[in-house]
Design a protein that fits this description.
Layout lengths: L4 E4 L8 H15 L8 H5 L6 H12 L2 H22 L7 H10 L3 E6 L3 H10 L9 E3 L11 H7 L9 E5 L2 H10 L3 E3 L8 H6 L2 E2 L3 H9 L2
Parallel strand pairs: 1-2, 1-4, 2-3, 4-5, 5-6
Helix pairs in contact: 1-4, 3-4, 4-6, 5-10
């Protein structure tokens, strides 16, 4: 296997946190009587983006920046509460893939748009923190995906040529960021249906993380 490092997205890629987020936002939209028509399409616009990137749109839609900030803060807490109480949905093949990469000596890191607080929480809840050398999080970079900064920040400390690295993503913004970073990317679709752009900017589109392991074994 020629890849020496794999950079993992988190939300929608390792865990089904997007479904948790949609549930949490829906509950809060009703509780807080938000002045928007909250539905799945509205939530979908936030997928693959950082809080900092989403905030101006929410503030505009709500007509109140403080309300938008309070909504996002409450949503993160509600989402982690749901995961703690109901269990964290793990994406198919995650544990097998991580064990395989460890056995092969492949370095794994996380590059997530979520804040470090949430990234650490979910990795620990899933008991997989030990598989990752480090994490780069959305509150630690200046620009959110689709800007390539987060992937370049994750790649640089590896001291491994880009051609020996692989990014795993589920969102179109993540794919754009990986492509612009000059690092090969595989898409494992979650909520976003692959379009022509996704097909053009990825080296493969696979159904789950177990299929990623099979793909890597063949390389």
């Amino acid at each position: 296997m020629r890849k020496k490092a794999v950079i993992f997205d988190m939300d929608g890629l390792m865990f089904d946190t997007e479904t948790l987020g949609y549930q949490a936002q829906g509950e809060l939209a009703e509780e807080m009587a938000l002045p928007i028509a909250f539905d799945f399409d509205y939530y979908l616009k936030q997928v693959g983006r950082s809080d900092k990137d989403v905030m101006p749109e929410l503030a505009s839609d709500f007509g109140d920046a403080e309300l938008a900030e309070r909504f996002l803060r409450k949503m993160k807490k509600r989402q982690t509460d749901i995961a703690s109480e109901q269990g964290l949905p793990i994406k198919k093949g995650l544990y097998d893939l991580l064990a395989f990469l460890k056995e092969e000596g492949v370095v794994c890191v996380v590059a997530s748009s979520s804040r470090r607080r949430e990234v650490s929480f979910y990795l620990e809840l899933a008991d997989i923190s030990q598989y990752f050398r480090y994490q780069v999080c959305g509150d630690e970079v200046s620009f959110a995906k689709p800007d390539p900064e987060i992937f370049l920040s994750a790649w640089k400390p590896l001291d491994i040529p880009k051609e020996d690295c692989l990014i795993l993503e589920d969102s179109l913004n993540g794919i754009r960021a990986a492509y612009d970073a000059g690092i090969e990317v595989i898409m494992i679709p979650d909520l976003i249906v692959p379009d022509d752009e996704a097909k053009a900017k990825t080296i493969a589109i696979l159904p789950d993380l177990h299929a990623v392991m099979d793909w890597l074994k063949e390389k």
